[in-house]
Amino acid sequence: MGLGLCGLCLMFVGLLAAFEGWYRMTLRELPSLPTPPDATDRLPANLARVYWSLYEPWGSMTVKPMWPWTVAWTVTRIIVSRPSRMDVPPGWTLADTVARHWRPEDSHRIRWRERLTIGIWLTRHWTAEELLAFEARRMPLGHGLRDLPEAARHYLGREASDLTLAEAALLVTMNDDPRWRKHPECFIDRLQPRRDGRLRHMRMAGLMTPEEEAEARAQPVVLAIAPLARHPCPPP
């Protein structure tokens, strides 16, 4: 009994070591690694809270490093408990998204194992703020915009640092439908319920208090799009 248990433990340790070895070997094969955004590129607090809620169900904006035992524990828990949705460590969904969108200097298409390796590396070396800043500048937002701070000026006439939680939620939920991105002024009646749904989700995740949610939901949806940016509304 004792020897059998000892053998199982050694096998488990060997699997962890093999996984870490595979990770390090794949890491060495990569031509380069992502460069973290500058501190000046980080999102303001309100916009960061809302954007985090798109990727992570957790209230705390923290990234849990993915070590071999983290992967083993996550997989074991999924197999044993069979949850209705896949529970992954905080920050992994966002790190995996950044890994999917990043391209090395020679712009070659990364393979799935390289993407997995980069995602693991990001959880060990980047903060939540750095992951958010990287991804926020690669988000399609209509009118050729792929930058949340720039979109804040275009759609709301405000700097990202001045956005309220309601405005930040509105800006992020505009991305839910391609038509909304191109013609947000035509879909005010649909934008408000989606904005309020995002705020409710944040409150349930612990990212905002009930008082903050009530105050944000009370704010009207107001856009400040320049006349030249307007187009005829598409058919319903």
Tell me what you see in this structure.
This protein has 236 residues and is an all-alpha fold. Helix content is 57%, strand content 0%. The longest helix is centred in the first third of the chain and has 28 residues, at 2-29. The protein is globular and about 65 Å long. The mean pLDDT is 83.
Keywords summarizing the entry:
236 residues; mainly alpha; 11 helices; globular
Number of strands: 0
Oligomer: single chain
Mean pLDDT: 83
Q: Radius of gyration, Cα only, in angstroms?
A: 21 Å
State the low-pLDDT regions, or none. none
Q: Helix-strand pattern, N to C? A: HHHHHHHHHHH
In short:
The protein has helices at residues 2-29, 45-55, 68-81, 92-101, 112-125, 128-136, 148-156, 165-173, 178-182, 188-205, 210-217.
Question: Topology, pairings included?
Answer:
Layout lengths: L1 H28 L15 H11 L12 H14 L10 H10 L10 H14 L2 H9 L11 H9 L8 H9 L4 H5 L5 H18 L4 H8 L19
